[in-house]
Amino acid sequence: MSIPFVDLKAQYESIKNEIDSAIESVVNQTSFIGGSVVRDFEAAFAEYVGVKNCVGVANGTDAIEIALRALGVGPGDEVIVPALTWISTAGAVNSVGGEPIFVDVLEDQRTINPALIEEKITQKTKAIIPVHFYGLPAQMNEIMTLARKHNLKVLEDSAQAHGAQIDGNLVGTIGDIATFSFYPGKNLGAYGDAGAIVTNNDDSANTCRMVSNHGQLTKHDHQIIGRNSRLDTMQAAILKAKLPYLDEWTEARIRVASWYNEQLRDGVTKPTIPLNMKHVFHLYVIQSPKRDDLMNSLKQENIGCALHYPTPLPHLKSYAYQNHKIGDFPVAEKLCSEILSLPIFPELSEEDLDRVCDIINEFNSI
Ligand SMILES: *Cc1c(COP(=O)(O)O)cnc(C)c1O
Helix or strand or coil: residue 214? Predict the structure, then answer.
C-alpha cells in the first residue's frame, strides 16, 4: 500500500457538499470576477488573522511582489531574505527591481538567523522578509527590534503558516504587511492558484488593491500603473467554505507531528519548537545524515516524501550572478543535504503513520 505525501482528495470528500455548492453558486450567478464572494472571504480571512485589511490576489508570489510595491520597495533597493525558502520569497524582490540579500538560517528552527541580519544591512536596505518556514514562526521579536533600529519595513511571508503563533500573536499581525498563499497543498488551499495580502495599514491595503486591479479602485480611474492579479471568485468561494475548518485541520496536523515525535527513534533530528511558538506543521521535516538512502528506502515502500528545498537559493543558477561560494551559507547548505519532508496532512491515519515510522526506525537500526 502506498502512502501519499499529501492527499487532497480525502479533504474534499470530507466537505464535498459544501465545496460543490460553493462552486455551483458561483456558476449559477455567473459572477466569475470580483463580487461579494471575494469580499466575504477577504473579510473572513482578515478576521481570522486579526488584521484590518485583507486583499485577495492571484497567488502567493504576486502577493509578495505587490506587498513589496506597497512598502515602497523598487529598483536599487535591497531586501533581506533567508537563504533557505521557496524561490518566490527572493524572486518577488527581483520582480520589483530590487535585490534579495541572502542570510543564513538557524539550524534548529530553520528560519532566518536574526543574529546574521545586521551585518547585511546597508544604505540600500529597505525591508526584511522573514519566512515562517514549514509552519514555524520566524524569530519576530529580534527581527522587529532590528527593523525599528534601522528603519526597515517587515513583510512576513506566511505562505506556509496560516494560524501559526508567536507569544500568542498570529503570524501576519506582527510586521508591516504579510502575505499568504492558498496554493492547493498549503494549510488553507484553494483548487487552483490564490493568495492574499494582510495589513493593518489602510494606505498599504489600498495600494495593494489598486496594483492588483489595473491601478484602479473604481472602474476606469487608473491612478497608478497596475496589473491584473485578482483573487478568482471560484477560488474565493472554495476558500470561504474551507476557512471554518482550518483550525480543526491545523490541530490534526499537530497530532500527526506529535505522533512522529513520539514514534521516531534515534537517528533522525526532529523539528524544534520554541516554547513561545505554535508550529502549524505545513511540513514535518526531519534531518538525517543518511538522507538520500533513507529517502530511497521510503520510496521503495511507496511512501511519499520530498525535499523542501534541495538547494539554498543563493546557490541556484538563477542567483549565480551574485557570485556566492559554497561555505557562504553553511547552515542552509547542511540542511539541504539532510532534510526530508515526511507525509503530513490532516487525514493521515495512525496506521499509515506507524508504517512510515517503522520503516524509518528500521532503516536507522541497521
Ligand atoms: C508557496 C509559497 C509561496 C508562493 O506561493 P504561490 O501561491 O505558489 O505563488 C511563497 N513563499 C513561500 C515560503 C511558499 O511556501
Answer: coil
DSSP bridge pairs for 56? 196
| Ligand 1 and 187: CB distance under 6 A | no
Determine the Cα–Cα distance for residues 309 and 94; give it in Å rounded to an integer.
20
pLDDT in tens, 39-93: 999 999 999 999 999 999 999 999 999 999 999 999 999 999 999 999 999 999 9
Grid coordinates in use for 362? 528500521
Ligand 1, closest atom to CA 160? 15
The share of the chain scoring above pLDDT 90, in percent, equals 99
Say which DSSP state 75 is in.
T
Domain boundary (244, 279, 294) is at: 244
Closest Cα to atom 14 of ligand 1: 159
Q: Which residue range forms the structural domain that includes residue 344?
A: 245-365
Residue 86 CB less than 6 A away from ligand 1: yes
> Would you say residue 1 has pLDDT above 90?
no
What is the pTM assigned to this prediction?
0.98
Q: How far is the CA of 351 from the centre of ligand 1 (A)?
A: 31
Domain endpoint, select from 211, 244, 277: 244
In angstroms, how far is CA 43 from the centroid of its own chain? 20
